[in-house]
């Protein structure tokens, strides 16, 4: 229930908002200091299935502890290819259209460094996962926000065309979307595909929450006509199998694009997690009952947390996917979600994340606050009870 991270001084509340690369460390430190229930950060309190853990352990015992091939062990690449065929009808070649990465974050960074040149622009759905802006800027590019507005958090498709300029190199698409939980529908994806084709853009898709869709369906952009040739699709096992610390992700796409991603990756990690790769190969071979139980379990937790937060007075934007819920603290009298979240650990013994850190300008106050339901039911109930008592006493 409590964060177990190294202590550090919390950020100065009188100064500008913390950069999004530090807010999670700050909130973890506050969680530890106040014995808070951490409902902010997206890591489960529970470990993955026993057979997945055992597959990794068996690989260690069998001596599979040295460097794997740059692209990943063949068994995992074969499992990724089978996964893509089974779920989406895609058929990436094991030899040259799949690369295993040190989590989705390395895949994102490698893709930005592979395709973005100094002065290029990357259009990304805002709010966005914290590594996007950093990775684009590491490559010398500029991120151009394509904002999803509350309460619906649907993309403004007419606005997308106006954001694309002669300097645009890439569209970065995240669905299911972190932090809002939006799942792009077929019409939205087709509109994105048209812009990409008309302007000859590379597309990178972040699909790490692909198996956590409660409403609608997950449809990879690469599965649309004409999109495989220009799309790098990124996946990860950490969220689906509750092994975030293993940092096993992947990118799939046409050989010409994946070759460039591999060309960068060799100078980032080269390769990592050999025994974990065997564990994830076993995980991806899970039968349909695993995915059904996984989704049903999180659907139940989503309902519990959403109902509890609404009862406490938050405006709740129930997500279509992911394991995050975006809320607004404005009905509770807070126009600044950062101030609210910094007060919360001491006041209520609960940690949440202010959504403003997911924006290109994180210094602008916003009332939205993100909670996660990737915790056991007892932890969620404890968090809600603490919020109930703390907010009432305030």
Give the helix/strand layout:
Elements (H helix, E strand, L loop, with lengths): L22 H12 L2 E2 L11 H12 L12 H15 L9 E5 H13 L5 E6 L4 H8 L3 E6 L9 H7 L4 E7 L11 H13 L3 E5 L24 E6 L11 E5 L2 H11 L8 H11 L3 H24 L3 E3 L6 E5 L8 H12 L1 E2 L1 E2 L13 E5 L4 H17 L1
Parallel strand pairs: 1-11, 3-4, 3-5, 5-6, 6-7
Antiparallel strand pairs: 2-8, 7-8, 9-10, 10-13, 12-13
Helix pairs in contact: 1-11, 2-9, 3-9, 4-5, 4-8, 10-12
Protein name: Aminotransferase class I/II-fold pyridoxal phosphate-dependent enzyme
Organism: Glycomyces albidus
Pfam family, one: Aminotran_1_2
Summarize the structure in words.
The radius of gyration is 21 Å and the shape is globular. The longest helix is centred in the last third of the chain and has 24 residues, at 288-311. Helix content is 39%, strand content 15%. A seven-stranded mixed beta sheet has the order 2-8-7-6-5-3-4, sandwiched between helices. By secondary structure, it is of the alpha/beta class. It is built from twelve helices and 13 strands. One of its GO terms (cellular component) is cytoplasm. Its cofactor is pyridoxal 5'-phosphate. Belongs to the class-I pyridoxal-phosphate-dependent aminotransferase family.
